[in-house]
Amino acid sequence: MSDFAQIPMQFVGPLKVSGTTIEGDFEVPLATYEIPLWPSVNRGARVSMNCEGGIKCTLVDDRMTRSVLFEAPDATAAVLAREQIKIGLPKLQEIVEGTSRFAKLINLNSQIAGNLLFLRFEFTTGDASGHNMCTQAAEALMNHILGNHPNLKYGSISGNYCSDKKATAVNGILGRGKYVVAEMTIPGKICRRYLKTTPEKVVQLNIRKNLIGTLLAGGSRSANAHFANMLLGFYLATGQDAANIVEGSQGFTICEEREGDLYFSVTLPNLIMGTVGNGKGLDFVLENMQRMGLTEDRAPGENSKRLACLCAAQVLCGELSLLAAQTNPGELMDAHRRIERAQKI
C-alpha cells in the first residue's frame, strides 16, 4: 500500500441545484490547502439557497476523445486514407464496442499537416471519465486502420489533437468531457445582503477583469477569475485525475444586470470526470459520492452527469463570491489574513 498525502477537506453548502439531470439541496466536498475557499464557496452556496430555483445546471454535451497519429507518404495519400476511413465509420463503431461494454464511437475529426494524418476519435464512456477506455478503443482502431491501409505507418497512440491536460482551443470547440452551464438569477437585495455589493459592480468587474484583463493577458478560450481553485478541490475530493483542471479551468463567467437583479453564469466546456474507475474505490471518495447522492442504482452515465452538475454549481458559488469580494477594496486580503491566521494547517 502506498502512502497517502493528507489534504484538508470540508463539505460546503448546502447548494440549491436544479436542472434536467439533478434537483435538490446538496453539500459538496472540497479538498484544498487554500482554506479561505471553504467560506467563500459557502457564501455563494448561501446565496443559492435564497434564490428561487437556486443554481440551474444544463448539460450541453458529453464526450471523451483520443487522437492518433499516422504517417503517410505525402499529403495526397493522407487525404485519400482519411476519406476511406470515414466511409468505414460503421465498422469502426463495431470495433470500439468490442473493446468495452460502455465505450461508443460517436464522431471522428481530422487534421492533416504535411504528410501527417491526425484522427480525433470521440466517444461516450458511461460513468467513467474514460481516459483508459478511449485509449484502449483508439489502439484497436489504429490496429484495424494500419491493417487496411498499408500506405500508413504508426505515428503515435496520442497525437496531442485530443487534447489531454493542455490548454488548447480544440477541446472547447469540438468538445472533451462534460460541457456544463450553471446559472443563477440573484435579486438585488440578496446581492447586497449576502455579497455586500451590487449587480452593477459585479457586471462591471467581470467585463474589466475577466474579459478585458484576460484578453490583454492572452488567455486561451478562458475568461474567469479562479475556476481552477474550485475544480482542484472538487477533483481531489472525488478521486479525479487532478491534472485535467488544465483544460477544465478553460471556461467563461458571464453576467448581466437584469431589472435590478444579477444574472450570473459559469460555462465549463471541458469537465473531465467520472464516478467509476481509478481513484474512485478509495473509502473517502466512496463516502463523498454517497453523501452527494451518487448511488449505484442509477442508469449508466447518470451519476457522472450529476457529478459534473454539482461541480459546476460549486464553481459558480466560488466565482460569484470572489468577484463580489473584489468589488470592495481590502475585502479579499482581509479575509485571507483573518481566516488563514485562525486556521493554521
Task: Describe the protein.
This protein is an alpha+beta fold. The chain has 2 domains: 218 residues, Alpha-Beta Complex (3-hydroxy-3-methylglutaryl-coenzyme A Reductase, Chain A, domain 2); 94 residues, 2-Layer Sandwich (Alpha-Beta Plaits). Strands 1, 2, 3, 4, 5, 6, 7, 8 and 9 form a 9-stranded mixed β-sheet that branches. A hairpin with a 2-residue loop joins strand 8 and strand 9. 46% of the residues are buried. The mean pLDDT is 94.
Quick tags:
single chain; 345 residues; alpha+beta; 3-hydroxy-3-methylglutaryl-coenzyme A Reductase, Chain A, domain 2; 2 domains; nine-stranded mixed beta sheet; 9 strands
- Largest β-sheet summary: 9 strands, mixed
CATH architecture of the largest domain: Alpha-Beta Complex
CATH class of the largest domain: Alpha Beta
What's the count of strands? 9
CATH third-tier fold name of the largest domain: 3-hydroxy-3-methylglutaryl-coenzyme A Reductase, Chain A, domain 2
Distance between the termini: 26 Å
| Residue windows where pLDDT falls under 50 for at least 5 positions | none
The whole-number mean of residue pLDDT values reads 94
Fourth-tier CATH superfamily name of the largest domain: 3-hydroxy-3-methylglutaryl-coenzyme A Reductase, Chain A, domain 2
Structural category is: alpha+beta
Number of helices: 12
Computed over alpha carbons, the radius of gyration is 22 Å
**What percentage of amino acids are in beta strands?**
25-35%
Outline = globular
Helix coverage percent of residues?
40-55%
What number of structural domains do the residues give?
2
